Amino acid sequence: MFSEVKILQIVLVQWLTLFSFTYNSHGTYILDGSAAFNENSYLVLTNTTKHSYGQAFDNTTFEMKDQSFSINFFFAIVPEHKQQGSHGMTFAFSPTRGLPGASSDQYLGLFNKTNNGKTSNHVIAIELDIHKDEEFEDIDDNHVGININGLRSVASASAGYYDDNDGSFKNLSLISGKLMRLSIVYSHPDTKLDVTLCPAEFLVPPRKPLLSLNRDLSQYVLKHMHIGFTASAGSIRALHYMVLVYTYPEAVYQPLEFGRVPTLPPYPKKPSDRLRTILTFCLTLALFAVFVASGIGFVFYLRHKKVKEVLEEWEIQCGPHRFSYKELFNATKGFKEKQLLGKGGFGQVYKGTLPGSHAEIAVKRTSHDSRQGMSEFLAEISTIGRLRHPNLVRLLGYCKHKENLYLVYDFMPNGSLDKYLNRSNTNENQERLTWEQRFKIIKDVASALLHLHQEWVQVIIHRDIKPANVLIDHDMNARLGDFGLAKLYDQGFDPQTSRVAGTFGYIAPEFLRTGRATTSTDVFAFGLVMLEVVCGRRLIERRAAENEEVLVDWILELWENENIFDAAEECIRQEQNRGEIELVLKLGVLCSHQSESIRPDMSVVMQILNGFVQLPENLFDVVRDEILKGRPETSMEILLDVNSFATLTFTNSFISHGR
């Protein structure tokens, strides 16, 4: 039992730590200098001004003295010029919450001329240096170093990693603008610190570290330290991004994968010079005048080439859902920009009208994923294309043209649900959703998930439940869409482990640990969506009061104070709605519980929403009980006792997560 409790505690630490930085650590990271979060929720430590510096330190302490630990973080440096940048960034252990008086340029936002090198600093840092400073005896302008109390590294090496297959050294450019992973592992029994750099795509770091230091770090630090990040720029500017940090209280290399590694935007360009713009325009106009005749002929040639169809054998065998490229080309008016509805991780979506029937469609254009076999991918499309349910966006067909795959769906005129929930994207004059509309949307999505999980011939796990993937039709009915990450398996069989994919914030903790998507991971995301619909806000709202920043934590606090009704958006907070609103809020917390053994399946969720099954009266005690976190067997017994008045189906459903 002790080993099982220990394992679950480790999993909880992993999950909480992983989410802590992705969403600003529930508001516990203290920012200083130019550090700020951009529109994509990435922490940017420096800005576009010269000689800027920034710091971000955790408000909570990290017990480091006489302890082993491993820390992984994902970062990127986007320079002003492709081949040159300054100065760099660090990951630091500090006895204080921030380092006051730090300087920019060569001091990396960590020290200044006065305190650099003093033993009283009690600071250990890993530097990612992109500028060679002779003052600190830097080896080059692209290196990783271990620093103790100063900026002269006690160990350093050029940026790169050792290949596990042949042991060869592979160079990495810190100013490539690409996301990278740095692993810091310290074994206290061995008094050994290992630092490993690798691309973000690596599931685990290479076996051979880039740097090793055999030294007892306890002599340099205090018992409780703060972890954080610093960065600085000089006369040549660079943006220093911190995307994700992950800590673990043992000296191990944990597998960690993004799924889809994000691409960071390029460095912002300066406004074009007026004279250069005029000259460019004149030259373009002159060239156009010279080649206008040949240009028109070439355009007609390309247009003819675009609509030319070549059928392959696998396309003929795929079934009746195939559209010709010419049909989709004409329906979307040549995939023009004005037909573009939106962009996502899987490509662009265009509005179209089919000739003849005048039916409105949405066409998603995406590049085929070469890591998945073509026949398997098309078989999955054909299977999902047979789904027919009033609360699922209907896949009408597909088309493959060259390297692009086109998926054709019913057009949803009222857009996605997040448009109605995100106040910053909502027109001030647009009417807010009524409670009746919200409750129906929640039931519609629940009905769709029940069909996917239990009512169809195969089990379908959506894997990307979020408001952006819930579309609203003419009659304000909700339909679940975007099956780009969906997985299918036969009833009664467990799904196989796959790489972690989905949207951060909606990914269940056990999915991050095991890589195994189940119907329970869909229930987790659905629970969060329910809370967003009732509260009319995002999961993380940084402009809110400190105790209201994290939606789930805020609702739990209100629930504990018997004020859970106050979590609902003010425009729907009416007394006649109290019963249903409180029911949905409590059910949302239950479905998004970090322990999958507590979550109900979708058949029970539907029964609760329809009033056929009641929630336990002391559900809050069950949700908050620390015993549930460490002893899942005991928690099941508690639930059975708590729900002794409910039907046997209700209590059994919590146990029978066979899918």
UniProtKB/TrEMBL annotation:
It is an enzyme of class 2 (transferase). One of its GO terms (molecular function) is ATP binding. It is a single-pass type I membrane protein. Its main location: membrane. This is non-specific serine/threonine protein kinase. The chain crosses the membrane at residues 278-302. One of its GO terms (biological process) is defense response to oomycetes. It is found in: Cell membrane. It catalyses: L-threonyl-[protein] + ATP = O-phospho-L-threonyl-[protein] + ADP + H(+); L-seryl-[protein] + ATP = O-phospho-L-seryl-[protein] + ADP + H(+). PROSITE patterns: PROTEIN_KINASE_ATP, PROTEIN_KINASE_DOM, PROTEIN_KINASE_ST. Keywords: ATP-binding, Cell membrane, Glycoprotein, Kinase, Lectin, Membrane, Nucleotide-binding, Plant defense, Receptor, Serine/threonine-protein kinase, Signal, Transferase, Transmembrane, Transmembrane helix. In the N-terminal section; belongs to the leguminous lectin family. In the C-terminal section; belongs to the protein kinase superfamily. Ser/Thr protein kinase family. The keyword Magnesium does not apply. Residues 335-590 form the Protein kinase domain. ATP binds at K364. GO terms for cellular component: plasma membrane. It comes from Arabidopsis thaliana (Mouse-ear cress). Its EC number is 2.7.11.1. The keyword Transcription regulation does not apply.
